[in-house]
Every structure is written in C-alpha cells, then in structure tokens.
Amino acid sequence: MAWQRHHETVQRLWNELREAETTLDLSDPSKIQKYCDQKLDHFDPQNTETWCQRFLTNATFEKPGGPAFIYIDGDNFPWRSGRRPCTNVCNNIVQLAKEFGAIILAVEHRYYGGADFDGVPDFTTQNLKYLTSRQALADLNQFWAWISISAQLSNVSEVVVFGGSYAGSLSAWARKLYPESFGASVASSAPLLAQANFVGYNDVVASALTAPLVGGSPECLATFSKGHAELKEMMTRAEGRRAVEKKFNLCGYNPLDDENNIALLADDFGEVVTTIPQNNDPGCEHTRCNIKLFCGNLSIMTKSTVSAIDALQLMHDFQIQEKEARGYPAPACWNVNYAEFVDFMNRTEKVSGTDPRAWPQLERLYFYQQCNEFGGFKTCETGSNCPYAQGYNTIHWYLERCRLFFDMSPGDVLHNIDKTNEFYGGAAYPGATYTVFVNGEVDPWHWLSTLVGEDPTVDAIFVKGASHCEWMNAVGPGMPGMVIEAKKAIQNKIASWLLMAEPGKHTKPEATKDTKEVKSLKAEAKDPEPAKDAKDAKEKPKDAKAAKPKENKLSKFLLATESEITSHLQVRMEL
Predict the structure, then answer these.
(1) Which residue ranges are recorded for the region named Disordered (predicted)?
(2) Fewest CB atoms within 10 A around its CB: which of 14, 42, 76, 159?
(3) H/E run at residue 58
(4) Rounded distance, CA 433 to CA 454, Å?
C-alpha cells in the first residue's frame, strides 16, 4: 500500500553487506543478552512491574582502562525478530572502538521490539503511557548501573553515549539528565526542539533539490514543484482526479472523490514519487536516495514530456522498475484509502517483526511519541516553500490524526509539546556539557537541532552537503570528503574527552544523584498534574520558539562559515 513505507528501500539496501567486524548482529540469538529487572515505570515507586531489555556487547577491541561506548537504539526498529541491528549506523562506533580500545554496548529501546517487548500485553493507548523518552532515558541509566557491576566494568576510563536521529536526542539528553553516569555524548542528526508545525522540514527538502553540491539544481526543484502544483489543480476537477488515478494506478473506484484520500495521496506522494534528501547518499545506486540521480533523470524525463506531472509519472514508473530490479515486486495498485489507513494505525495487537503488519504497528508507536512529546509533523502549508502539493497536509490535519489514533485533542498535543521543551530546554540545550552535535546540510532534521553550543564544551559540526547521520556509516567508496572530515572531527573530540577521563568515575551507582529534571519527574508521579478540561484547551496550533543562543563563538562548524550558520539560525527563529 502506498502509505506503508517500504522502509528497506530507503535504508540503503545496496549497503547491507559490510565487513563482519563493523556490525552488531542480532541474527544469532546466542549473542542477545537480557536485563529483566528493568522498571516499567521509573517514576512511580508504587509500580513494581518490570520488563526484559535486550542488549548486545562487543569486546573485540576492549583494552584495560579503555572507555565504554554505548549505542542508544531508537525508533528504527532493529530489534524485531529476524532483523540485523546496527548494520549501518553502528559502523562508526565500531571503528571508533577499535581506535580507542573501547567495549561497545547496544541497548534496546522500550516498545520498539514489537511483539518481543514484554512490558505490556498490547499497544492500546492506555498501555502506551510508558512509551516516553524520559522513561527510555531512565532505562539507560538503570541499565548502566547494573551492567557496570555485573560485567565488572568498574575501570572504564569514560562512558560515551552515541545515537542518531531520535536516538541522537536521547544521547544528548542522557548526558544532561544523568551526568554522573554518562561522561560525554555524540549526538548525530538530533532534533532537540519539539515543534508541532515542522514547516522547516520541507523548506530544507526544497533547498536540497537546488543544492549543486549534491547534484540538485533550480531546474530540478522547479519541475518537482510544478508537477505537484499541477497535481493540486487537477484535484479541483472530476476529470483531473480521474486522470491522476489512472496516471499513478490508484486502487479503488474514484478514490480521489474523498477529500481525506486526497490528503493521504498528498502525504504519501513522497512514496509514489520518492526523493528523500535526508537519506541522500552519493553511493546509492537508485533515485530514491541519490539526489544527483533523481534530478538527472527528472531532467531527461522533462524533455520528453509535455507537463511536469507527466515527468513525475515517468519517474514513478522508473522507480518501480528500480525496485523490481532489486527483488521488490510492484504493487498491483497504490492504496490511498484513508479509512483503511486509520484502521491499520488503530490496531493494537503486538505482532512479530516478520508480520506484514509490523511496519504500521511501529509507525503507531512513534506517532504516539509525536503526539505525546515531540510533534515534528512535516506540514505542507499553502504559501510555504514546500515543493509538494500544498494545503492538504496542514497542522490541523496531523493534529486530527492524534485524536483519531489516541483520543488526544489539539490542545492536549500542543500542551505536551510545550512540556517537552520546558523539560529538556529545546534547541538551546541549556545546562549541559561535553556533547558534540553533528548535523548535515541537506538533512531537514537539522532545523530542530543544536547548531550553536551555549557551553564551551558543547561543540557543533555542520557538514555541508551531508544527509541524515551520513557520517555514522563506515568509510567506503564514494563517501564525500566532507563526511570523512566530519568523522575525523568526531574522533578528535572523543580523544580530547578521554585525555581528561578519570577511570571508574561513571561506574559508581551509589554516587549517582538525581538532576533537577529527574526529581521533577518523580515528584510529578507522586502528585500528577491535573487533567485539563477540554473546554480550556487551547486549540489554536502554536509552536514553542527556540530560545536564542547566548552570544559566543561557534565552537566548531565543518565547511560552513559563521555567517551561513548565523543566517540560518535567524531564519529558524523567525518561524
């Protein structure tokens, strides 16, 4: 179905087979270990329920007195049965472990193991209340307190936490909330600002399609945007809707006569004709994850067609052929039935990772976190820079999903997002130290990340032309020089941290003190905030503004000038 993400195809299938030492392999059950005393609710002492958290270790390169590197898993679902986690994003941590003599640990995130998560019987809204970043961070702290004793890791010189994307955010927040457990953090492509109306995402998509450094051009963006504008115009006429249904082989009888189906098509058109700048990779051999190939082919197609939407139709057909060449059969038709989509997202039974329902199930989990904590809804509002069909995927449309799936009103969602920014501090990342934030220019998520550190020990690396977590891959043929330089900068930063390390400092659980944030969570569990009256909820969508960083020098920007970053920050704050 169109709305069911073909996740594997945008996860660089071409790069699946790496050298054995650069992966952490879950396919061999004997390598999986479990910590079964993990608390289900860390902030309510009356709740004694526990669950079994899975983890992996790799001591191949461990040296006496070396550091511990912890890879935090997030929402990318690697712990499903039959999957191989960390095939790509753990590559860099393994290379760094080899350099510094570190022991590696990779830790499962609660809920994202699907049917293997034994903390709750199903994924009803009531049972999702323990799926929060704050509970996941407390998991990590308790896991380290346990493993540091049980695995006799008392002499590690330092504990460095790593993560990418949502897990990158967890990495930064772990250092901030539990500084006595985790000495430093490498936070890659980490969104820190919770924001409901994430207009910046598609702003960056548009910018990436014009960026010559990655093979984009103004002509590419113009054709792409015009094609989607033509799509929107065709939705206003019955004959136009019939033509679109035929062009893109949509399922059902006159599906675009339903306005919700049109909105789903607009939301999913990135799957019908796919270009995903956040996954851009110069080594990728198909148009879905290589802007240069996408724009090059679109230019050729434009010359052989009358209209821009016809060029998009050719690209759609071509991408189906690309997938078929890699063993993915073409769907009989593209399903844009919104009612069916809602039904799938409301299914609460836990299924295994090999079940066809696993992907929508896991989408339900992360969408819950979006409604309950982060927002990050990739809107395409009328009058914005969004290159897709504007005016369908509005903030109101996304907030309505929160109501349909989890019975959260718009006011509830906006309140949740405000609370997240109040708790973590947003993109300003106040009060934290010894963290390096790495972001890529063509990755839209950099819009919500930290680009300037408040503290002298907080560094920022902004990589020109780079995509989402691109530097977390192992060095391979075709990796851009700027990404390789970013990897070196990360390594140098870790080296500087380890020079200051004190062996055993982060392996004494009895010395761990609650930060003010953790104390507030425990107090809230004892005296929870009263539920808001629905009549008092503010229904008008609004976003928390990023706090303006203090005046100080940019700690580190890779291949980007200070004026470029300052200009970018100013634009972001004005939204």
Answers:
(1) 505-553
(2) 14
(3) strand 50-58
(4) 9
The band of 508, judged by pLDDT with boundaries at 50, 70 and 90, is very low
Pair of tokens at residue 549: 């960083």
Ramachandran quadrant class, 434 (left: phi over 0; alpha: psi -120 to 50; beta: rest): left
Task: Compute the CA torsion angle 91, 504, 432, 139 (nearest 10 deg).
Answer: 70
Cα four-point dihedral sign 447, 230, 272, 296: negative
Radius of gyration of the chain (CA): 23
Q: Write down the residue that tokens 């303006």 correspond to.
A: 548
Percent helix, strand, coil in the chain (nearest 5)? 45, 10, 45
Q: Using CA atoms, how far apart are residues 56 and 399, in angstroms rounded to an integer? A: 37
What is the end-to-end Cα distance of the chain in Å, rounded? 34
Residues constituting the chain:
575
How far is residue 545's CA from residue 574's CA, in Å, rounded to a whole number?
Answer: 8
Burial class of residue 527 in the structure, from the number of CB atoms within 10 Å of its CB (0-12 exposed, 13-18 middle, 19+ buried)? exposed
CB atoms within 10 A of CB 5: 16
Report the distance separating Cα 180 and Cα 210, nearest Å.
45
In the predicted model, what is the mean pLDDT of residues 517-545? 51
Number of Cβ atoms within 10 Å of the Cβ of 99: 12
Q: Which residue has the tokens 């049972």?
A: 127
Q: Which H or E run includes 174?
A: helix 166-177
Q: Give the DSSP letter string of 385-419.
A: S-SS-TTSS-HHHHHHHHHHHH---HHHHHHHHHH
Residue pLDDT, tens place only, 249-277: 999 999 999 999 999 999 866 667 888 89
What are the structure tokens assigned to 1, written together? 């179905």
C-alpha closest to that of 283 among 473, 75, 20, 507: 473
pLDDT > 90 in the chain, percent? 66
pLDDT at 526: 58
Question: Residue 136's closest CA among 57, 72, 50, 78?
Answer: 72
Strand order in the sheet with 159-164: 33-39, 50-58, 103-107, 68-72, 159-164, 184-188, 435-440, 458-463
3-state secondary structure of 296: helix
Q: Which residue has the tokens 């059969």?
A: 329
Structure tokens belonging to residue 267? 């939301």
Tell me which residue has tokens 């069916």: 340
